User: Fold this.
Amino acid sequence: MRGHEQSSNDLSGTVHGFVVQAGSVQGDIHVAGAVAREKVPPPWQLPPSVRITDRADELRALEAHRCRAAEGGHSTLAAVSGLGGVGKTAVALAWLHTLRPDFPGGQLYADLGAQSPGGPTDPGEVVGRFLRALGVPTGQVPSALGERVALYRSLTAERRLVVLLDDAATAAQVRPLLPAGRCVTAVTSRRRMPGLSLDGGHVIHLEPLSTEAAVELLDATLADGRVAAQPEEARALVLLCAGLPLAVRIAGARLAARPRQGITAMVRALSEEHERLKALAIEGEHDVRAALDLSYQGLPPVAARLYRLLGLHPGREFGAPVARALLGDGAVEALDALHDANLLVDVARASGGERYRFHDLVRLHAAARAAQEESGGERAAALLRIGHHYLANTGRAEEIIEPGRALLERDFDPESVVEEDLGPVGGQTEAEAALDWLERELPNLMAVVRLARPMGAPELAWGLTDALWPLFPRRKLYGEWREAHQEGLLAAEEAGNEEAACRMLTSGALGKLAMGDHAEGLAMFERAAASFLERGDVLGHARTLNYRGLAHQRLGQPDRAAEFFARAAAELPACGDLRAGALARFNLADVALAQGRYEDAVVNAEAARLTLEAAGDTYNAARAAGLTGRACVSLGRLDRAESELSAALSALRAEGAAFEAAHVLGGLARLSERRGQPWQARQYYRKALSLYTSAGRSQSAEADEARTRLGALEPPEAGPVNPAPEAPGPTTSEDVPGGDSGGP
Assistant:
């Protein structure tokens, strides 16, 4: 037998898998079988959960989705999106930690680094970490992404575990990291991820906390009784934090470090808008501004510029046309990018149309970015584009509502204007739709009026105020009426524009009459009349005759009022203003009706109606028809009264003119009384009282008369007639549209 050589064949150290020890091997060697790996404990990688408030609905929705998926034998995928600092990770952790007893296979966690300075984390790297956590030796982790994903899915197919993919950038980054089997995966992202719906995902968007929940979070953060001791200050503080949990926690942490300091001190620190983001930072680690900076830095350049420019918008919300006016081409895509990044809140459902708003702290951040990155000239130009856009569209609405009204000259850059949608919906008239648009945009329009003088564009103050005229009397917006005309008058006087100043005086004085300040209104009219005379403006002076008559009428001086109305009715047509002359004749008819001169009332009201119809002023023409109808009731011309009143009521309802419609209903009630129809009369009086209430005029003289006559017609067993609670409004005896809603 052939001898053999001595050889060493020792094995030491830790060995994974099969081992074959041999000295001399001859022939083919075949080794088969699966690769055996060392048994490793399940990974428990989730960060600890923190206290959350006001998220019960979201947690229920996540759990309900999991249960539905489990019943169908599927894996669970849920995505939680929202603004930076809104608590996405906290909600995901609160949910996933409750699942540990049912998912013994472990918990995997990865920060996908969407906001990382170095860019999002490579999914291949994350899968490699997951494989190692699941027991795959480093040397056996495949190098190719596809092979890594295949091995990951194989290892998780029969394993019940949960996975948290935090701060994801895109759905494409997430997909390779989804486990197989009946596992649960939660994804958080500052971006909305509708793409994950295609993978069976349930998408939840987090909004900031309610005030009550934010106060609760502040109390939990402080845990020292200061919130209970200073509840109003606590509410003020969380309102300044705009419900953002990160901001509330930072404010609470700063207070917690100062146990002897009252909450009021932090309220003062946050009250200065330009310092608020700076104050919402602590220890250089948690910082609201830094969180928003990260979201901002991830925007495409065009979207980032729109973000900055919209930060200059003076109102709280805005429509897509404003963005197009600011940016032109690319605005729609930029808006989508801002919305997807959760930097804009879509409020279309609440406000109608395509509308957005900033979270309060985001608005401050956008404005700060504009101040840093846009020159003073660029910021001023953007504000001017916003103002011109609103001025042009407000003028369009004005022309729809009152097509015959004389306009102040308005100068704006056509390139700054994108047409807003003023079209009627749901059976509206064009005028109703235009009024609705004006009222919806009024906060923005008033913000521009207030900003006009400081931004060096005083013409925007009086131009917008003048264009808003049709809205104020029809919707009874007395506070805005007063404020806009005060600001418009100041702007016109500072700019030395006498024509604009007179318009602000006259239309502002009509507001004074509507609010019961009759003497002050008369003084403003007299001031305007003197200015017109001094400048030789015959037409302007003639118009003030009508207005001064209205003031005397409200002051209880009907004969003096009739003198002014008669002069206006003669002089205005001679100056070429037929519509204003017709309104003067209407006012003459109103005085005649009040004095019992019914024939004179019919003659003047009918003449006014014909001219107003020819001028396209359907609102005032309907008022004239209603006045004719009421006079005909007193004259016993009942058939004509019914015809006139019915036509007037239909037209006024279409205009949404509740106060004037109530006048007409009172006339129909009187007509029913004359015809011996007390039941019908009672119905009309009740409807009239309801309209007076809705218009905020339940204590007016007309409402008192309707209430008295209804009480006289009620059966003896009926109780007293009381008005329903009404919307806020002045309780004057007259309403200015009864004199001249057409404006100056």
Observations:
- The chain has 34 helices and ten strands.
- The CA atoms of residues 682 and 712 lie 10 Å apart.
- Strands lie at 76-82, 107-111, 162-166, 184-189, 202-206, 281-282, 286-287, 317-319, 345-346, 355-357.
